[in-house]
Amino acid sequence: MIKNSFNPNECHPYVRYGRMSDPSQNPRSPEQQFAMIDETLRRVGFPWVHVRDYRDDGITGRLINKRAGFNQMLSDIKSGILQVDLILVDTYERFGRAEELPALRRRLYNRFGVLLLTADSMFCDPTTVQGKALAMVEAIRSTEDGRIKAHNVIRGKRDVARLKHWPGGEPPFGFKLQTVMSDRNGRTEVDYSILVPNPETSWILQLIFRTAHENGWGTGRLAKFCNAHEDIPATFKPFYAATVGYWLQNPIYYGELLWEAHNTGIVEDRRIRERNVEEDMLRIADFCEPLIAREIWDAIRALRQERSARIKAARARNSDASAKLIDAPVPGLALKYLLTGLVRCGHCNRAMTPSSTQPYTTQGGTVKRYVRYVCPGYLEGACPNGTRVSEDWLREQVVGTIRERLFPGS
What we know:
38% of the residues lie in helices and 19% in strands. By secondary structure, the chain is α/β, with parallel strands linked by helices.
């Protein structure tokens, strides 16, 4: 059995890492964490040597790859630029709240001889039996603490919504918040807010719903219509198909609040969203003054559901049936075309999407289709660049350029 070689009374070089989760929080939180680390070190009397500090400001600990200071610290350790034995944090939560961190903590020790120690545990040795037990508790605490806080927040927001008060966040487009004040302990303060129509934007929503109802247009044509509409101020442009689709399916516009329609979370550094079952959602009728009639909303919804059903049926016919019942939270995406996501619009810098014609059969019996990259903003009227680039030609040019640079003269 391999024995632990960590002796806290030796002069170990260390780095300090601090983090604050949100820009609205105390900006001096990392400095306070560093001060607590120093005070604890003086208290225990270990002769460790400070080398460098790393910090991240205003980013959640549930993310890993998006924390610049955190990843710079790991990169310096892995490259050998940073020769240290210890990473010191105030609490394990400052190191992060992701489920992948315990494995990273073990890998730092096994491959690079770097231990993560916390000031709130008086720098307990994580390689001992007691330290391993504490590390397990810290890992559970770091993730469960966020879950419990989220549960408490949602419980309070549900209660606020039942009172027909706005539960928080930006008001939906077409509405604004009206603040209700109250006197408490001799002071006038904000009690709650309610949704009221915003004269500046409510007519735009009514125009979108009226146009969708009268013409049966989809979200792409509606977005293009709004972007070209002369009466809509430029401050509200551009409009996007996805945004218009979100508005069309939101029941708040006929006066009903749908709260907690989705659950969100972070898995492998990606934010995912899953729809709740109906019994877990909260619906509050007559929550606010409606902008449109319920009959118009229902008619638009029925048309969109019919189109969606046709698309799903077509996709089902073109895909192989599977007996699999469990979907992966972050399955990734299989790309059919080599440069998908890499081709950018020269005007708006959006990722250009491949657009294909219907397959056809040549006289020789070969099934062919033409694929071209086009800016999605152009299709919605949000970008003037209507250039279409052949996928075959562009792929040959890019691959040829890479081959020439890697193997010149070949």
